[in-house]
Each structure stands twice: as C-alpha cells, then as structure tokens.
C-alpha cells in the first residue's frame, strides 16, 4: 500500500520547555486542527502537554 497524505507524520513538542519531541501520525480528515496530547516528558520526569508542530 502506498502512503498518502491523509495520515501525515506530525511532531509533538513538549510545552515544558525541554525541547523533547514525540513523532506520531494523525488522520487529517477527522482531526484537522492541531493535536494536543498529555504525555510523559523524560527530561522533566512528569506528564505535560505536547502540542503539534508544523
């Protein structure tokens, strides 16, 4: 199967100011706005919000 642009790779950058990122895929049709997830930041050693970067 060929990869399409419907599920692009997105970077999730920590709002804790550490610069740590996660990389994931998202469905652009069902979630057109920016993704915000609460994930673990190993630099801060706690859970913080990660926001989608473009």
UniProtKB/TrEMBL annotation:
Gene3D superfamilies with a match to the protein in the record: Ribosomal protein L33 (2.20.28.120)
| GO CC annotation | ribosome
Signal peptide stretch: none
| Gene that produces this protein | rpmG_2
Q: Which UniProt keywords apply?
A: Ribonucleoprotein, Ribosomal protein
The family annotation for this protein states:
Belongs to the bacterial ribosomal protein bL33 family.
Matching entries from NCBIfam families are given as: PRK00595.1 (NF001860), rpmG_bact (TIGR01023)
Name the chain's protein. Large ribosomal subunit protein bL33
Q: Name the InterPro entries on file.
A: Ribosomal_bL33, Ribosomal_bL33_CS, Ribosomal_bL33_sf, Ribosomal_zn-bd
